[in-house]
Amino acid sequence: MFGILATVLMLIWLLHYREGLDLDSSNPYRVFNVHPFLMFFGFIFLVGEAMMAYKTVAADRPIQKYVHMFLNLSALVLGIVGIHATFKFHDKMNILDMYSLHSWIGIGAFCLFILQWLFGFSLFVFPRASVVTRTRLSHWHVLGGRVLLYMAICTALTGLMQKFTFMQLTNNRESYLINFLALSILLFGITVDLSVSLGRYTSHN
Amino acid sequence: MFGILATVLMLIWLLHYREGLDLDSSNPYRVFNVHPFLMFFGFIFLVGEAMMAYKTVAADRPIQKYVHMFLNLSALVLGIVGIHATFKFHDKMNILDMYSLHSWIGIGAFCLFILQWLFGFSLFVFPRASVVTRTRLSHWHVLGGRVLLYMAICTALTGLMQKFTFMQLTNNRESYLINFLALSILLFGITVDLSVSLGRYTSHN
């Protein structure tokens, strides 16, 4: 729900208030706009859905695993395209890369996500380790996933905050839209965490 | 460790690069500087210590509870002073209150924290409910605490990002200092979450 709300708000912002989305456009702002859209919808939203697909949707375990793996893989690919968009924008505008807090946390979260995906892929899709080892490692996979989700949320919020301060918005319609967009991204992250954690409490009892 | 690192970096930033800290100063920037310091050291750091005091420090249960309650109460009081500092700064500078994403998330997290504290205080310090109800409610208290911790971290990072963009820093010493400060705040939050969660896994097994 919050994820869909955030996607809709994001599209209203980018299409109505900003110049729209086009990765191959000659207008650098249209190239840039691909970045927030893909990083939220492609990356955060799909990762959240992948987490919930594994824990809260009733299905056979192997199906859950493949859906979880496939959604995370799609998120990874879309995330790479999204990061590419912002570097392309910086190139066109002659802006320095990777100086801000947003970029530091973002690139850190993304690299750790790739490691987490490879770790999950090698361990769970092709199981060779013993059951005890896998249970112990699965705790780390779950905790790591949660930490990465919150790191991605932090990155999204710092990114929107940066754009917001850069455009020197105060109390106008666009500023409210961006604030509500950011709030729904945060609430999306929180509800994913809660539903996955409550799913775990239920299965324990 | 990360918490102490972040406190040291914060003090270097505010005392060496900025004008220092003084809530009653006539220099509005010195009043403002009280805000990041108290919100991190007074609020996030003490709350994190309170969470770890309850879960990871070996002590009698009642002592753990009182330390947890008392640290959270101190955090609440210091947080109120910290928020007061920023409103005082806005008054002096004629800046609008509460328009930015940082302020929205921050005030939301703080109000929820007060509710969480009252909830915890009424339920655990003066126990009247049955054991089953208390176990169920304690799950919510734990999840709520984690969500609030990450909300507070998000608020801190958006605040630093806002200050960073506002000062138009790029690649200089102060920008690296702020980025490392923000990274250590994030890593402090993550390590608190991990140590509390691993503490729970250990006590389950």
UniProtKB/TrEMBL annotation, chains A, B:
InterPro entries: CYB561/CYBRD1-like, Cyt_b561/ferric_Rdtase_TM. It holds the Pfam family Cytochrom_B561. This is ascorbate ferrireductase (transmembrane). It catalyses: Fe(3+)(out) + L-ascorbate(in) = monodehydro-L-ascorbate radical(in) + Fe(2+)(out) + H(+). PANTHER family: CYTOCHROME B561-RELATED, TRANSMEMBRANE ASCORBATE FERRIREDUCTASE 3-RELATED. Its cofactor is heme b. The chain crosses the membrane at residues 36-54, 66-85, 105-126, 147-164, 176-196. Its EC number is 7.2.1.3. One of its GO terms (cellular component) is membrane. It comes from Mikania micrantha (bitter vine). It is a multi-pass membrane protein. Residues 1-197 form the Cytochrome b561 domain.
